[in-house]
Specification:
The chain has 435 residues and is α/β, with parallel strands linked by helices. It contains 16 helices and 15 strands. α9 runs antiparallel to α11.
Length: 435
C-alpha cells in the first residue's frame, strides 16, 4: 500500500507503516466495520488513525479506558494528517464546550452520558480495548454496542486480547460489527460453545464449530502476533505514555527541571537535596492510581506477564496493593530482601505464576533474568540513563525471542515530560554501545 493519496499523504512526514500494518489496512479498506485484534504492541492505535486519514474522516469519536485517553491524544498529534482538533472529555462539562472539536476522546464511563450521544451523528467510531464490552448487562456495553455504534458511519474496534478465550464474551462485539448476522445471545452460544446446566444456571465452556467461527470472523477481523511479524519489529521500542496526575504535584516537580537535566547530562547536577527528594516522591505517589489502571488494561492485551519498575518504596507498595486488588498475581522485589527471597520471586515470574513483577529500579536492575515478559513499564523514571537501560535489559537479554516494548509513564505537565526525551535518547545510545 502506498502511504500517499493523490491529495495528501496519509502518514505524516518521517513516519511510516510497517509491512504487516499496510497489509491490515489494505484488507480492511473493504469493510466499514473493522475488528483489529493485533497483539499488544503492534500499533493498533496508529493503524486506526491512518485509516481515518485514508478515508478523510474529520469527525471522530474515540471510546477507550480512562487511562488511555491522553495517549490517544498524543497519537493523534503524531499520526494525523488532516489538522484535526482533538479534545479529551474528562469532566462533566456541557457539550457546548467542545461541540466544534473534530476528535472527541472519552472513557467508557463518559460514553454512558446520553447528553453527548444525543448531540452527535455521522462520526467514525474508534473503540479501544473493546473486550470491555463483553457483558450485555453492563451499562458501557449497552451504551457502545446499542447506541454509539448505531449513529456512526464506520467503526474500528480494537483489542489485543485473545478473541476466542471465552465465547459468550464475543457476542456483543460481533453483534456490533455485523448487526443481525450472529443471532441472539442464546443461539450464538448454543452454536459456538458448550452449554452445561449445573443445577442453578447455564454455564458455557470451550469452543465448538471453531473453523466456522474463525471463517466468519475473518470477514471483518485482522490479527497479527508478535511472533509472526518479528522481522518487522525493532528489538526494543520505547513508548511515552502521558498520564493525568495532580496539577499541584506536577507544578511542584517543575521547579527542579534544571537540576534534573544537569544530572542526566552528567554536568554535576544533583537530585539529592531534601526538597527535590520530596518532590520526586510526591510525583511518584501521584502516578500510583493511573499506573495501576494502565497496567491492568495492558495485562488484558498481553500474551505474557509484565515487568513494572518504580523507585520509591511507598510507590512500589502502593502499586503492589492496588494491582492485587484488581485480581492480578503480583510478585515484588525491593531492597533489603535476601538472595533466596529474590530468587523465589524471579522463579515464580519466569515459571508463569505471576501476572506482574513489581521491582525497585535499583534493586532489580542488575543480575536478574525476566525474559518471560516482553513488556516493561516504568511508573517512575530514574535520572541515571545507565540504570534505566540496565533495568530494561532484565527483559531484553539472551533467551528473549520477542520484541521488547518499554512503556514510560509520563506525568502530564510535570518534570517527567520535560526530561523523558533526553533520558530515552541517552538510554538508546547506551543500548547501541552495550549490545
Amino acid at each position: 500500500m502506498s502511504t500517499k493519496t493523490a491529495k495528501r499523504p496519509i502518514t505524516p512526514e518521517g513516519l511510516k507503516l510497517r509491512p504487516f500494518q499496510k497489509q491490515n489496512l489494505k484488507k480492511a479498506l473493504r469493510w466499514r466495520r473493522w475488528l483489529l485484534t493485533d497483539e499488544m504492541g503492534l500499533g493498533k492505535t496508529c493503524q486506526s488513525i491512518v485509516m481515518c486519514n485514508i478515508r478523510s474522516r474529520k469527525k471522530i469519536v474515540v471510546i477507550c479506558p480512562a487511562s488511555l485517553r491522553l495517549n490517544w491524544k498524543h497519537e493523534f498529534k503524531m499520526w494525523d494528517t488532516m489538522n484535526r482538533s482533538v479534545y479529551v472529555i474528562n469532566s462533566k462539562n456541557p457539550f457546548e464546550d467542545y461541540a466544534g472539536e473534530d476528535v472527541l476522546i472519552m472513557s467508557y464511563h463518559a460514553a454512558t452520558r446520553v447528553d453527548i450521544l444525543r448531540e452527535l451523528s455521522d462520526y467514525t467510531l474508534l473503540i479501544d480495548e473493546v473486550h470491555a464490552c463483553k457483558n450485555w448487562a453492563a451499562a458501557r456495553t449497552r451504551a457502545v454496542v446499542m447506541n454509539w455504534s448505531k449513529k456512526s458511519t464506520d467503526i474500528i474496534a480494537m483489542t489485543g486480547t485473545p478473541i476466542l478465550k471465552h465465547i459468550p464474551d464475543l457476542h456483543p462485539v460481533v453483534s456490533m460489527m455485523r448487526p443481525g448476522e450472529f443471532g441472539k445471545f442464546k443461539d450464538f452460544c448454543g452454536k459456538y460453545t458448550n452449554e452445561v446446566w449445573d443445577g442453578f444456571q447455564l454455564k458455557y465452556y470451550g469452543v465448538k464449530n471453531e473453523d466456522e467461527l474463525k471463517a466468519r470472523l475473518a470477514e471483518f477481523m485482522t490479527r497479527n502476533l508478535k511472533a509472526d511479524v518479528l522481522k518487522d519489529l525493532p528489538d526494543k521500542s520505547y513508548i511515552d505514555v502521558p498520564i493525568e496526575i495532580s496539577a499541584k504535584v506536577a507544578a511542584e516537580s517543575m521547579k527542579y527541571v534544571a537540576a534534573a537535566l544537569k544530572s542526566i547530562g552528567g554536568d554535576g547536577g544533583s537530585l539529592n537535596s531534601e526538597h527535590i527528594a520530596v518532590a520526586r516522591r510526591e510525583l511518584g505517589e501521584a502516578k500510583i492510581k493511573p499506573t495501576i489502571d494502565y497496567v491492568t488494561t495492558l495485562n488484558t492485551g498481553c500474551s505474557g506477564p509484565i515487568v513494572l519498575f518504580a523507585h520509591h518504596r511507598s510507590v512500589l507498595q502502593g502499586l503492589r496493593i492496588g494491582l492485587e486488588e484488581k485480581g492480578l498475581r503480583v510478585g515484588m522485589l525491593i531492597g533489603g530482601m535476601s538472595d533466596v527471597e529474590k530468587d523465589a520471586v524471579v522463579r515464580k515470574f519466569q515459571g508463569g505464576e505471576l501476572d506482574v513483577f513489581v521491582g525497585s529500579i535499583m534493586a532489580a536492575s542488575v543480575g536478574l533474568t525476566l525474559t518471560a515478559s516482553s513488556e516493561v513499564v516504568f511508573a517512575e523514571l530514574d535520572w541515571t540513563p545507565a540504570i534505566m537501560a540496565q533495568a530494561v535489559d532484565r527483559v531484553h537479554r539472551i533467551g528473549q525471542d520477542r520484541g521488547v516494548q518499554v512503556h514510560m509513564l509520563v506525568g502530564e505537565d510535570s518534570l517527567d515530560q520535560m526530561i523523558v526525551e533526553v533520558l530515552e535518547s541517552k538510554m538508546r545510545t547506551i543500548n547501541k554501545v552495550m549490545t
